[in-house]
Write a structure and sequence with these properties.
The protein is mainly β. The chain contains one helix and 19 strands.
């Protein structure tokens, strides 16, 4: 049964630092004068959320390897924005930027998509510790104004209608929560995220969505810095699965994007 109760904000650090540089403000400290931080996290399978043992990870060029729990850590990381690269046999490699404030411990999980020979879409959602529970929704067009809603209450299937499936539902923060979609239907699909429960809001969630087609990373979308309240929706995109055309909406709103459309089971 699904249990339902009810990270580290480095964004501000990067914004202020960039503003100081752009405005010509001088500082008395160079990066080498700042106390180093540490980057740690877990390397996880995007479909199953299982840990990936033996993944190669580098943080700012310093290599390490994930253990049997998928855990990795690199200390003495220079303060600033650094690059984290993770790869493992059978998975698509991932490169992500991480802001490391002076002297702080920063968690950054690396969620890897299994390699494929197909052209399926994968929507991989990750976020911070709070809110604990964000939910992915996909509306699959069936024609005639009908949609099949794939979410935690109806996880769908990739072997039969609706040819879309919620692969993993995470309720304890961080993710991943992943949806796989096969391009079996014409007309527009819709993807959105709902804040189901936990402290904070979508705005403070540090949510990031990566959209893959096959082995290619098509889009990376960050949750917008926009006013919202509890129980709001992040309307990310509409897309044509057959043509591969995306319209990135990326807005926060108080209702689902297809709230007036009949939903077909």
């Amino acid at each position: 049964m699904r249990y339902r109760p009810g990270h580290l904000s480095a964004v501000t650090f990067v914004t202020l630092l960039a503003a100081a540089w752009l405005s010509g403000c001088s500082t008395n400290s160079s990066p080498s004068d700042l106390e180093p931080g540490e980057v740690f996290g877990y390397v996880l399978n995007a479909i199953t959320a299982d840990p990936i043992d033996g993944a190669a990870v580098s943080v700012d060029g310093v290599p390490t390897t994930s253990d049997s729990l998928g855990y990795y850590a690199v200390d003495n990381v220079d303060a600033g924005v650094v690059s984290v690269v993770a790869s493992a046999t059978g998975y698509v490699a991932l490169t992500t930027a991480v802001a490391v404030p002076e002297g702080e411990l920063v968690r950054r999980d690396c969620v890897l998509v299994p390699s494929t020979t197909g052209d399926e879409y994968r929507f991989v959602l990750a976020w911070g510790a709070d809110p604990e529970d964000l939910d992915s929704y996909v509306w699959v067009p069936l024609g005639g104004g009908l949609y099949h809603q794939v979410y935690f209450g109806d996880t769908g299937s990739i072997t039969e209608e609706p040819y879309a499936q919620l692969d993993n539902d995470e309720t304890s923060g961080y993710g991943p929560e992943t949806v796989t979609v096969l391009p079996e239907h014409s007309d527009l699909y819709t993807y959105a995220v709902h804040h189901f429960g936990g402290d904070g809001t979508l705005r403070t969630s540090e949510a990031i969505l990566r959209i893959y087609q096959g082995n290619d990373l098509r889009h990376t979308v960050l949750v917008p810095d926009q006013y919202c309240e509890d129980d709001w929706w992040w309307y990310v995109c509409a897309f044509d699965a057959e043509s591969g055309q995306f319209t990135i909406v990326n807005t926060l709103q108080d209702s689902p994007p297809l709230s007036v459309v009949r939903l077909a089971k």
